[in-house]
Structures are given as C-alpha cells and as structure tokens.
Amino acid sequence: MKALTAILAPVLFVGLILISWETACRVLEVPSYYLPTPSAIGAALRDNLPLLVQSGWNTLVTALWALLAASIVASLLALAAGLSGLVEQAIHPVVVTLSVTPIIAIAPIVAVWAGLEHP
Predict the structure, then answer these.
(1) What is the largest CA-CA distance in the chain?
(2) Which of 5, 81, 85, 111 would be a feasible disulfide site paired with 116, CB 3.0-4.6 Å?
(3) Long-range contacts of 85-88 (CB under 8 A, 24+ apart)
(4) Do the Cβ atoms of 21 and 38 come closer than 8 Å?
C-alpha cells in the first residue's frame, strides 16, 4: 500500500497542478502567447512530434561532438600546462575568467563563433 501511495501521490499532485493551470488560463482568458494551456501544449507536441524528435536528436549529436572536441582541447591544454610552467602562466588568466563566468553567458557566443546557429 505504501508503494502505491508513493506513486499515486505525485501523479495526483501533478494532475492537480495541470487541471488548475488549464482552468486558470481559461477562466482568466490568458492569451496563449503569455501562457499556453496544458491541452494546447499537448496538441502542439502531438502535431509536431516528428520535428521535435529530429530537432532533439540534432541537438544531442551536436552537444556530444562539442563535448568530445572540448574534452580533447581541455586535455591537451591540461597536459601542456602540467608539463610547462610558461603555458600554465599563459592560460591561467583565461581559465580563471572562464571558470567564474556562467556557462549560459558563454554558450551563445561560442555557438555563433562556431557557426552552429545554422543547421
């Protein structure tokens, strides 16, 4: 019984949130460009599923290639910095600056530089 409750409670809570969201949007006549209803989101998901899956796959492949490239570059830089004090001193200011900069601020710049904004 405890296992059923552990599953049922979150499902019912999410259902309550979705019903409240749908009701509030309809009663308050919230424009869909501000906050679409869950039913509108579900319909858009159903209608655009092949495109969304393909776009998700493309994003995953791009992210994995970028991870591989970044790992190789970072490993080579780490090796060079470990073997040479001069290289370490040269890259240290850049490393410190990048480590305190939020990734969300760097990612769009890198995407534009790499030409990833165009498929």
Answers:
(1) 67
(2) 111
(3) none
(4) yes
Query: What type of residue sits at position 17?
Result: I
User: Quick one: which of 46, 23, 53, 50 has its CA closest to 35?
Assistant: 23
Q: Which two tokens stand for residue 45?
A: 């998901």
Instruction: Provide the residue-wise pLDDT of the chain in tens; the chain has 119 residues.
Output: 888 889 999 999 999 999 999 999 999 999 999 999 999 999 999 999 999 999 999 989 988 998 999 899 999 999 999 999 999 999 999 989 988 988 888 878 877 887 766 55
pTM comes to: 0.63
Give buried/exposed letters for 72-86 (b at 16+ CB in 10 A, else e). Answer: eeeeeeeeebeeeee
